[in-house]
Each structure stands twice: as structure tokens, then as C-alpha cells.
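job 3f2a | input accepted
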Amino acid sequence: MKHDKIHQYLNKVDLFKEIPPEDLDLIINDSYTREYQHDETLFYQGDSADNFFVVIAGRIKLSQLDEEGNQTIFHYLIPKEAFGIIAVLRNIPYPVTAEAMENCKVIGWDAPKIEKWIRRYPQIAINSIRILAGFILDFQDRIRELSTERVERRIARVLLRLASHGGQKTAQGISIGLKLTRQDIAEMAGTTLYTVSRTLSKWEDLKLVDCKSKIMIILNPHELTNIAENI
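job 3f2a | predicted structure (231 res):
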């Protein structure tokens, strides 16, 4: 990607809001771009956090393993989202594993370079805090869902969240846009594979979703929203 294209792109990224154009050019000069193939890992949970990234193309899964080896999927990153900066700034290992869900491209900076620009522009740190606050609010919502809501609502919320976060409208409905397994959905909804399979099969019979293709399609977003909101 050419310099001017990267400039236009990063100018729309929340992390670099209110940074003067001439200085954004200098920040870009300190960066590198890298491509990852589908299923390739960018970094593992526990790796030294020495680089931070912004997604240019594709989607990236952030997940975490507990001590017993159970995986929890925290988030699917889409283009223009930044990740890794909090671990870099706190000088702690990456708390999650980042895996390409499709062919992806990122722009990255190593720790000394991004720290240099944060010292020069505290606005980048402020923007980072705002991004982190958004993640925290999302996690709080998910914890509340796990604690108080029945499983069908949680599964519906997961699908609607994925659809709103990079989904695409089609003639049939809204395509999730990701090749998700039912186990992936179970991990995001905090339930079992059996429960997800049973629920999706019922929703297929009701023409709410289409799970027959590799990429799920929400056929009736309105009714799925009713389930999610317990209407």
C-alpha cells in the first residue's frame, strides 16, 4: 500500500484522531506493513508485547486460554481497529492470541517507535484510553449477559454483534462474513456446543438463519433482534 493511501486510511482510524497530517506522515514512516494468511497467528497469548497494530484488511480473532485449556473468544477485529497498544505501553505480555480469520493485512509499529510518538502527542494515549474503554464496556455487557440472560438471548446477541461488526447485506439477509464453527459461537456465548447446535437447528427450521453454507446468513434480523431483546 502506497504512503498516501496509508495516510488516507489512518486518518480515519480512531487512534490517530486530531494528529496533524504532517506528523501522521512521520508516524507512517516509522511503520511497517505485514500480511497474514488465513489461520496464521500474529502473536500468542504470553508472547512479549513488542509491537502494536492497526488492521488494514481482513478480520482477526482475539482469544484467550485459561489454565485448563478452555478457549474464550473476546473479539473479532475489523479494518481500522487497533490492537496490542495497551500491552505494549504497560510492558506486559500479550494477554490474548491474535489469529487471522481470513487473509489479512496490518500496519504495525515496534514499541520504541510508538512510545516516541505518544510522548510527542499525548492525544494518541487519550485515544488509546477511549478505545480501551470501549472494550471494557463490551466486556461488561458480555459478563452481564452470561450472568443474567438465558442462552438463546446470548446466542442471538453474538450473531447480531458479529453482523453489525463487519457483516454484509445480501439478497437473502445479512452475511456474518466469517467462517465460524458452532464451537466458536459457543465460546463467545458462554455455552456448550450441543446447546448452540440445537438452537441453530431450531432457528434454521424457523427460517431465522441459514447455516448450510460456510458463512452463516441471518435471514430474519428483526426476529433475531426480538429474541436478543426478549421481546
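job 3f2a | The longest strand covers residues 51-57.
job 3f2a | closed
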